[in-house]
Amino acid sequence: MDKKFELATPIINKLYQFGFEAYFVGGAVRDYLIGREIADVDIATSATPDEMKKIFNRTIDVGAKHGTIVVVTKQGSFEVTTFRSEGTYINSRRPSKVTFISSLNEDLKRRDFTINAIAMTKVGDVIDFFGGKKDIEDGVIRTVGKPSDRFGEDALRMMRALRFASQLDFTIEKETKEAIIQSHSLLEDISIERKTAEIQKLFLGCNPQLGLRYLIETKVYLFLPQFSQNKTLLEKLLNVELKKLNNVEEVWSVLCLAMKISDIDLFLKKWKLSTKLIRSVKQLVKFVNKRLQAPLSNWMVYHLGVEQAIKVENILSIMENNQVKSDHEIKNQYNLLPIKERQELACDGKDLLSWFQSKKPGAWIEESIQAVEKQVVEGHLQNDKLLIKEWLISRANKSS
Ligand code: ATP
Ligand code: MG
């Protein structure tokens, strides 16, 4: 069994010692059976949060209301959730009431897809009430129970289906897909934050083309900001190598470029992205557009830094299929820059004022420093005080 499960086994052992049941559940079991790298190991148990708090020395209350406790051990922290079934749903969203029940079967039944509804004992025996293992073998995403009911309970599951299709390279079973087509409008009531998380995972999956195709075919795109008006432009993305996307900055940049978004701030704010991410995407889009006109200059690398420059080149290679510089070449180019930031310049505003005593302080200082900075970064002028002074004087003479 995978090391990650072994690290969590003491928790299961302890729960049994105290007379409770406990199993590995959810994404970790699915990924283990697929042979994919396992993210977090989750445990389901018959013990209630209060009972768990008594048994384990260190716990964190993350969602005791929903039955989830984080148990902290020397081997790591693990989410342990009490078996539960979910009550009625309001607005196709969260459960209004969670009832703890001592039944693994009931707990698995409330899970979204058969592949996510498999449990495993601590010795690796698989408990599979809903044919999840077969669906993994066949590469199929199918709801547990009647798809239209399940999407009616929680509309986000429709986006989860598309996202898993992309992440696992699985197809969506016919009836499940039909139900998404029928129920897609329920997504109206889902919070944008949850949609954002799913869209990002979809585009960063191993078959984003497939995810995008489903997004269009099922009409889910109609309930996503800006996507709804841009079907044709989105379809064009089906022909580019989205698989090369490495991070969320690249995802949003590619979407902005593909949909020819003019007000990036407005668009990304609709998706409730952080200011930091929006700033980064704006820079990337700006420099991708610059790069369409010219090669990656020292001046561009200087402004971007290595990480952003790598992203710019990757976005270009995806969107334009351009020959671009490798990460290694970009790192070298950066390392060879004569200066990495303005502070390293051999002159400053004070020097300029002393060299041009007839001039009053003003915007010319910033303009001159920027001109010097560019010359130095591009390697046309040595970062030497005297040489900079000479260059500035001859420049001033030329322009007068
Ligand atoms: P990953 O963490 O890789 O995104 P995951 O399958 O672990 O995938 P989580 O969101 O972490 O997904 O949820 C853990 C488990 O909880 C799922 O495997 C599934 O069994 C259940 N689950 C999560 N969200 C829902 C939902 N909206 N409806 C029903 N069950 C869900
Ligand atoms: Mg998970």
From TrEMBL:
Record-listed Mg(2+) binding positions: 40, 42
Reaction(s) catalysed (UniProt annotation): a tRNA with a 3' CCA end + 2 CTP + ATP = a tRNA with a 3' CCACCA end + 3 diphosphate; a tRNA precursor + 2 CTP + ATP = a tRNA with a 3' CCA end + 3 diphosphate
Positions of the FHA domain: 32-95
Subunit architecture: Homodimer.
Superkingdom of this protein's organism: Bacteria
Binding site for CTP: 27, 30, 111, 154, 157, 160, 163
Residues given in the record as ATP binding sites: 27, 30, 111, 154, 157, 160, 163
Cofactor annotation: Mg(2+)
UniProt xrefs under CDD domains: NT_ClassII-CCAase (cd05398)
Function per UniProt: Catalyzes the addition and repair of the essential 3'-terminal CCA sequence in tRNAs without using a nucleic acid template. Adds these three nucleotides in the order of C, C, and A to the tRNA nucleotide-73, using CTP and ATP as substrates and producing inorganic pyrophosphate. tRNA 3'-terminal CCA addition is required both for tRNA processing and repair. Also involved in tRNA surveillance by mediating tandem CCA addition to generate a CCACCA at the 3' terminus of unstable tRNAs. While stable tRNAs receive only 3'-terminal CCA, unstable tRNAs are marked with CCACCA and rapidly degraded.
Single GO molecular function: CCA tRNA nucleotidyltransferase activity
NCBIfam families for this protein: PRK13299.1
EC number, UniProt record: 2.7.7.72
Group of enzyme by EC: transferase
Gene source species: Bacillus carboniphilus
Miscellaneous note of the record: A single active site specifically recognizes both ATP and CTP and is responsible for their addition.
Keywords: ATP-binding, Magnesium, Metal-binding, Nucleotide-binding, Nucleotidyltransferase, RNA repair, RNA-binding, Transferase, tRNA processing
Official protein name in the record: CCA-adding enzyme
Cited InterPro entries: Bact_CCA-adding_enz_type3_sf, CCA-adding_enz_C, CCA-adding_enz_firmicutes, FHA_dom, NT_sf, PolA_pol_head_dom, PolyA_RNA-bd
Family: Belongs to the tRNA nucleotidyltransferase/poly(A) polymerase family. Bacterial CCA-adding enzyme type 3 subfamily.
